[in-house]
Amino acid sequence: MAHCGEKCGLKRLRDASDPLAWEEFFRHYWPLIYGFARHRGCSEHTAEEIVQDVMLTVFEQRDLFHYDPARGRFRDWLGTLVRNTVAQRRRGPSERIRAPGGDRELPCPEPEARDPRPDALWEDAFEETLLLLLLDVVRREMNPRAYLAFELYTLYELPGAKVAEYTGLSPIPLN
User: Fold this and answer.
1) Structure pTM?
2) Domain ranges in the chain?
3) pLDDT-derived band of residue 111, with 50, 70 and 90 as boundaries?
């Protein structure tokens, strides 16, 4: 299956009758949303609720997903949505914020994100999610042993001779 990136995936999401598109979207983006909420100090339970709230909003606004570079990127819209959902939950009386590594509750309501530009944490997390998504596509389309060689050499920076030893593949000489 060919993958055409963010634009094609968003086009598929507009079709509410394509459950596979929504399943893929959820599988790829829930760790990003959940991790971002946890990093902002939300409890596991609240982070799960934030994922649900964001997914519901994405579903409700799916008809708006027409790629237009002048209007900005989907990732920025999603980042603003996630930051605002976290802010709303953190301001609510049910959420208790804890200091990282501690038990002390912090009364630190987070303001809504008025600036649509992403913050560095969101941008880094989104890029990592996108990389994992693309690697998953490549992995599914390649011979498993060849993908393992790619992963060992590229991601784990093992020398070619070691990669060949582990995978049973012959190294390709670079001339």
Assistant:
1) 0.66
2) 5-141, 142-175
3) very low
